[in-house]
Protein 1
Amino acid sequence: MAKKLMKGSEAIGEAAVQAGCHLFFGYPITPQNEIPEYLSSRLPQVGGTFVQAESEVASINMLYGAAGAGERVMTSSSSPGISLMAEGISYCAGAKLPVVIVNIMRAGPGLGGILPAQADYFQATKGLAHGDFRVLVLAPWSIQEAADLVQDAFDLADYYRNPVMVVGDGLIGQMMEPVEFYEDRKPIKELPPKTWASTGWKRDRPKAIINSLFLDPAELEQHNFDLKKKYDLMERDEVRFATYGSVDSADVVIIAYGTVARVCLSAIEALEEDGIKVAMVRPITLWPYPYEAVREVAAKAKDILVVELSTGQMIEDVRLALQRPRPIHFHCRLGGMLVSPEEVIAKVKAIKAGESEAMHYA
Amino acid sequence: MQNDVIMAGFGGQGILLIGKMLAYAGMHEGKEVSWLPSYGPEMRGGTCNCTVVISDKPVGSPVIQSPGAILAMNLPSLEKFEADVRPGGFLLINTSLIKQKSERDDITVIDVPANKIAQDLGNPRGANMVALGAYVGATGAVSLEQVEAVVRETFAAKPSVIDVNLEVLHKGYDLGREHAAPTAEEAAS
């Protein structure tokens, strides 16, 4: 298919359709309303169903039902809406259901604002809801990558029978860029038939029961161990990242994800012209986190700079990656304000000149 | 090579549309492009703007603090963005609606009476096309032919408006060309 100029939200919707998702349940919230808007007209064209549910809680439980019946299904929301879905996502994880959830993050806490932020890093990667579970978290930095990752998300969800979350900031939702969909796209995983799905029992196989309640502790313990095996496999096989710039001998290594990393890349190119060598590690999976990549590049860099649209949530993972106490420099904008290349350039120069105060962790 | 511009004006002036058309033209030329609208709470008739980046390599930051050009279609837009134009860049002012002069002397200021030109040519709603033409003429960010193709594509469902929009586009383009830096060929001759 030829390249098409698409808004991120529309590209995410189309990517879901291309991945064979014919069901969408959601509730409106800015800045991702163009995803449900697009799918409300697109899904009927492919024989699918779009439902504007009465709430986020209802939406995620509709996903539970549809995924339990073996269908590819997606919802999208923005930060406060994801909080409302949290309980249902935990149930999906407990019942081993493949669902895809898109979070176009806005600034918080509470209702916060509607402009871009990366305020939900902890929520997505560490504390989405109760219970001992993980979700795969994918963070695109362009509209093309958003389209690609949404399609991958459905394969990963089916393969692991686990919720997968795609997180973008408001720029990913609102920006237009050229996007290409590939007609001959193959699943990125070998996907067995969904024999576990509840599709109607004709006495020809064991009953398929979708459930997350295990009152027998021994049985639940085994279930938890089975889940852990899955999470271990994801940590081993699904880490994704990209590196840029002078990774072998950087004055400063930047760690950033999503659209912030693009801003940093613009800064890196300008800094290289000034003879300052900067590298960047861009996590594409926020969970599992690319600990090794960050450690390796940081080991060859004099200084470390984390840039985020949050008060420093990702720093915790950078510290885990480093494995030893090292000062970490940090730059952020909050509340829907955006980091500019000029700010990153100034910060890197300040670090070089010894004028940036680093955070020291014992 | 990268061309970036912030186009700004009232909601309803067709600012977002000409931004998209510019991005399309860039994409059709095989360049990397991004189009980013301002979004957020705005009152009816309030200001709106979009940032368009056209580049030979993948677009880094889609947010541009100091763009190479600003197109100000109304006074609030001029007041908001005038100081941001990169030194050596272009400031296009819709003098039909803006009487205030620019105080910058380190940039090329282009007076574009967009509404008047459109009105005189009998296409009062084509002021945005005049402005788009002037921007393309001044910067050469994309070729005129490519923009013409996008005009034909955009208005395919309403063929009757294609020629009138091309007419105002050309008028704006000629005005922009008067202020453009000479091309290599022109400089040589």
Protein 2
Amino acid sequence: MVVDGIADETGDIVDRLFHALADGTRRDILRRCVRGELSVSRLAAAYPMSFAAVHKHVAVLERAGLVTKERRGREQLVRTDPDAVGRARRALDELESAWRARVDRMSGLLAEDDDGGGGPRAPDLRENTTKGPDG
Amino acid sequence: MTVTSVDKDVENLTLTLVADFGAPVERVWQLWADPRRLERWWGPPTYPATFEEHDLTPGGGVKYYMTGPDGEKFGGWWRVSSVTPPRALEFTDGFSDQDGKPDPEMPTTEVRMTLTEHEGGTRMELRSVFDTREQMEQLTKMGMEEGLTLAVGQMDALLAE
């Protein structure tokens, strides 16, 4: 379900972000430019495509906020913006943390069963032990 | 380590996690299928979950809330799309508003969970996919970060006990 309220500016930004990341050449450009700035002509030499095509890819990345482009003399230098990549990863990192914690709790429950000997037993009533001596 | 591997695919908004447990498939399944077991691991210890509805049948629903340290309640829901006891479960996982209804402005994920026998124990493979890019970003925006960071901290404390 699409909610109009969400399709705000942030939604547009994120759309551009993932459109930009969905292409192999553009991801490769990101990887190359994360190690340091590279000129568009230098990038163009690395791919079996025209300068104009590479320039177009860089423009998509720039609109998504993934790279910045700076003109220096006759060259256009491209640099990866690590913050933008970081934003996209953060949501997945958070989901990972949540599931890791859950898996550990699942594991703990199964181990409790083993300590009790025999098969699964009725779950204990949860005791509130969050207030330990150390606070 | 219980968690064997984690793969985060930013392009496809997908988290894939593999975990191994030293218990038979049926017992791991019960952690999902028995709401009293489920509420002991779904929420962090400081935000314990209470499952009010728990219908693991295709089209069935699950309704729960988590209670914070100050008594504040945070609701959530699942919509079950497919279930194959004791091996597989697919559902949409979302948040509820104050009235306990699905909150369309909060992110949802499509979860697919499978259990297989593995080296005398059970391997759980879990895939969680954000529905849309907007929602993925929304999760970060809504301050979930704090809650989840807290969950990890509580886990550490539990393990140290």
Protein 3
Amino acid sequence: MEKYKMHILICGGTGCRASASEAIQNNLQEAIKAKGLDDEVQVVMTGCFGFCEKGPIVKILPDNTFYVEVKPEDAEELIEEHIVKGRKVMRLLYVDPENKEVISDSKHMGFYKKQIRIALRNCGFINPENLDEYIARDGYAALGKCLAEMTPQTVIDEIKESGLRGRGGGGFPTGLKWEFAAKNIADQKYVVCNADEGDPGAFMDRSILEGDPHSVLEAMAICAYTMGADKGLIYIRAEYPLAITRLKVAIKQAREYGLLGNDILGSGFNFDVEMRYGAGAFVCGEETALIHSMEGLRGEPTVKPPFPAESGYNGKPTNVNNVETFANIPVIINKGASWFNKIGSEKSKGTKVFALAGKINNVGLIEVPMGTTLREVIYEIGGGIKDGKKFKAVQTGGPSGGCLTEKHLDTPIDFDNLLAVGSMMGSGGMIVMDEDDCMVSMAKFYLEFTVEESCGKCTPCRVGNKRLHEILDKITLGNGTKEDLDLLRNLSNVIKDTSLCGLGQTSPNPVLSTLDNFYDEYLAHIVDHRCPAGQCKALMQYVIDPELCVGCTLCARNCPVDCISGERKEAHLIDTSKCIKCGACMEKCKFNAISIQ
Amino acid sequence: MAKIKLAKSKVEKLVEICKSFDNKGSELINVLHKAQETFGYLPAEVQETIARELNVSVAHVYGVVTFYSFFSMVPKGEFPISICMGTACYVRGAEKVLEEFKRQLNVPVGETTEDGKFSISCLRCVGACGLAPVVTVGERVYGRVSAGDVADIIKEYQK
């Protein structure tokens, strides 16, 4: 890396690539060539920077200038001004929305200030397709240390002492899990990386795999060393083509460097990794279901015990950890358990990555110490609610987490606190909702997901969730009764208590938490036949206020079914019998003349 | 479902795919991935051939195909349209966008227009939540789509 004077880092995460970051890369390279600076300036496509809301992001080193919302046509100016003349391109810098201050270094931005990056340490920093860059950031030092200086048991003890808990949602102590797998004697054992990130709205695992694939390979090798396995499998979603490509590159490079394969670093330890592809089944995030899927079967969970540590893949002892869990391991070995366990809360150590999304200003991927409050995450890092609307709820833990409200905002986020308030950590999805979101519809939306994703093996989950969904549907259509609410609650509790795996045991959470926190909203649907958030189509009508309408015709021109009539400069009218309630008119109206009744 | 007869070359291709995975039943999912990549979808006849080659029952193959949402038994359109229904997209209005696509193309989710040009499906999170709601057409990703943009997106592919 030292041969270049300057480096231009471009986010190559999925979000930024969707906004043409590859074209930016090409244009930058051309502009550099045109100036004859090929030998001095290097353009690197990195993993995700996290600040997706402001993507595509371009960062220039060594001066740490962080450009946001860059377009391919800005490339020439960036090179001409910043690289050649040494002047920052002011119009592409981040402006603090509160005090309008221009901030050029990301570490001073509200979004990054409170973050501590352990699992995401290399994302947006190194070229994920270059092993040397990973090594330059202490990569494979932890594996070297384990093989040369530590016994399997001392490695396990270190992980146990660190207090690391499974980041996939279970929160089970990782060191303990490794110890179980190590204790079972067998001729063949397996290490499995669960990269079947199924939570809609959570994309931390993919970002780690896309931005720092070697951290996962290194950790898998360390795990294999502790339990005496020589084979690793990465179970990854087929829907993640970029992550798959980057992993394949990483595996190939690691083999070439002798960091995977036989006699790693001359220690006599053998380990190699293969990929297995998921095919779109949420339940495969559950470890027994995942193992069945890898065996070529339907991904249905089985009763534990036996735990995979005894009898997993092909009936052999298997240790399954999630991507983010693995990404923490090398740092713990390098910096020590006592460094790691000082970060976080009493029972949840270290940091957690969250995918912050929904009605929030700064959508993105963040990593904060456990124990950070929801308020800090939503208001300080997330920059508050979009369009100045009112915060209504935050849903943590993916489709089977709970919806938390204003009163929970000061709850420090960790595994146990979230469970105590009726939600869960899950894999770290965090969806923020505002006053326009109907909580009954949200519960229905989540149930729709679980109904579709239930594997059908056990009755409470297969039938129970379907019934829950039907009742919620009935309520959103305005046909619910008060008895339905009791039924919802009873049925939810039965499903939770009697389902076989984590999916059914948690799927009623959105129903229960919205019943607890938004009971009045349910009542409004049932008693008043009204959706307070104005989202339930059956219970609403779009109307134009003749006082406010100036007759600009914009709504009529944007109506997809031509149901708005009216002469120019005269108040318009919506034909409610033809209206499909798509909301396009309301979105376009510049005079707030259209409302929902 | 109507039977179609697989061309000999297609059968040979399938046999080859199965062979590349040592005709092992445990490789079924990998075989199906490869087969779908080659043929675009997995009609009954493809499943029958795979079952024969891997020496497993057709019911087993069918069970696996229908279990995973990635596998499809119907062909996709020339321009497959997918609307992200992940939570982040949903709260930013993905449902309205979906409704609009369904209305304009006049096909339900999971089906293809009569001319074979467009098919509509829902997907769960492409990981571009900053651009929500997201629609993909083939490899192309459209961000911050509203119901009003739908006609323009369709028009791009209708020429």
